[in-house]
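Quarterly update, task 2.4: iron/sulfur cluster-bound model.
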Amino acid sequence: MRRLARTHIGLKSGDPRKQGMSARNLILVLGDQLSLNNPALSDADPACDHILLAEVTEEATYVRHNRHKLVLLFSAMRHFASRLKRKGFEVHYFQLGDDVSTLKSACKTVLDGHDFERVLVCQPGEYRLAHEFRQWPEALGVEVEVLADTRFLASLEAFDAWADGRKQLRMEYFYRDMRRQYDILMDGDKPCGDRWNYDNENRVGWRQQEDIPPRVNVEPDAVTAAVIEEVSAAFPDNPGDLSQFRLAVTQTGAERQFDWFCEHALSRFGTYQDALVEESPWVFHSLISMYLNCGLLDPLEVCRRVEQHWRNGDCELSAAEGFIRQVLGWREYIRGIYWRFMPDYADENFFGAERPLPDWFWSGETEMRCVSQAVRQSLDLGYAHHIQRLMVIGNFSLLTGLDVQSVCDWYLAVYIDAYEWVELPNTLGMALYADGGSMASKPYAASGKYIQKQGDHCKQCRFKPSKMTGEDACPFNSLYWRFIDRQSDKLENNPRMGLIMANWKKRNPDDKTAILKWADHCLDRHA
Ligand code: FAD
Ligand code: SF4
């Protein structure tokens, strides 16, 4: 895979004002950069710098974004603009109805009436925009500085330095380095508790053994209520049931939501982080990815807060470590992978998966209970937790060979926290193994037994996870073996697949034929 050279995206790590240039900057703040830690804002001066935020049609429509995401971003942008105004900045703000189609045209409109020396912007989260910014100096006739996004904890250079020369880029080793670097959950140079990893304690399935506390909702304020109306009118066909919109739209609001998580859910986060639960879409998960990803929460702060909870004795080490691993480890690692391997990464398709997406991806109307539940809540709320994304919807897509590009587009559209830097490696790399193993050491493929073990969906399902063939057989079972059979050429050299491949090979030929025949039937019927 070709790697992206840093110069390709025109990153600058220094601030031009600190390099002695007197400047009048137009600072463009994107919808996922709503933080005073945004490097383009860190030294902004209300006396000479102006700020621009724009709700532009192109960004709102390049995929069929979930309406929850649009409302969250537009409302959070409007609140952030008010905050900047209160700090004395002149803020240029284009609302959706102002009909500004692109970020470039928004910049041009403001530049035309003023005498700015440069446009300053923090690096965007998608290659598409980073690439576009490179054309801007010529198109706008002004200097355009794209600053490295210091809100992340591993710079792209640091990630590359870690990755260069390694045969395999395993998250675990990256994560340990991050723990050491930020001195999080460390006891000198050793991990607290003498172990880096508590995954074994953190994989308990769900048998209704705990009460799940109800979430505290944030009632929409006047700004959010207005945005809900505008988005409903402008995007009538997008997914998202806005009658259920209950998200925070400010830093303070997001911090309160995180406080709630620390107090009521963190202690059980680790234990049930892989659980699949009929009664709750969120179980004990934190529901903060959408805030972290748009700038309302700071990743280092949330990790430090969770560490403090453990040090105060408010949760087990396994819970704190499980959470910190996700934010300090997975989140940063995923971003490093994206920028290291784009743009070629987006075209990877290791298994040659090209089957069109079934229509029910846009309705949730399938008889498979686990899938139906995960898809419906993804469409309605823009949220599904990790195991639903990976081992239910992703697993089904992998086993049935759904078209990689279409699956990635679907994930980018439906989730409230979806930006390409995080969605693509997770979907293409982790769930679909379409990068051939750059990230995962083996495909996350599983039969119905895994889903049964992790939760209580199967009890409500018309299929039985114990059955391989026949009308009431769980489709995941035969589809799993079909996947192993069809992809054996590509999997047999994978040491972690050896046992499974051997099991399949030594199976009775008649059984194999019956399973594969039933799998074809399941494909026709469900995919
Ligand atoms: P929790 O389970 O409470 O975890 C805490 C935090 O850890 C999350 O908020 C998130 O910031 C971080 N995190 C955990 N796992 C990952 C991961 N694999 N990659 C990056 N960050 C992680 N996450 C997104 O933010 N945006 C996406 O578009 C996205 N797409 C995904 C697609 C697939 C196929 C898969 C398998 C995972 C995807 N994830 C994505 C990762 C993960 O599923 C979500 O971050 C998580 O479900 C968000 O819910 P939460 O805040 O309750 O997370
Ligand atoms: Fe899902 Fe199969 Fe269980 Fe039904 S039986 S819920 S399809 S795993």
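Highlight for this quarter: The beta strands are 11-12, 25-28, 50-54, 90-94, 118-122, 143-147, 186-187, 190-191.
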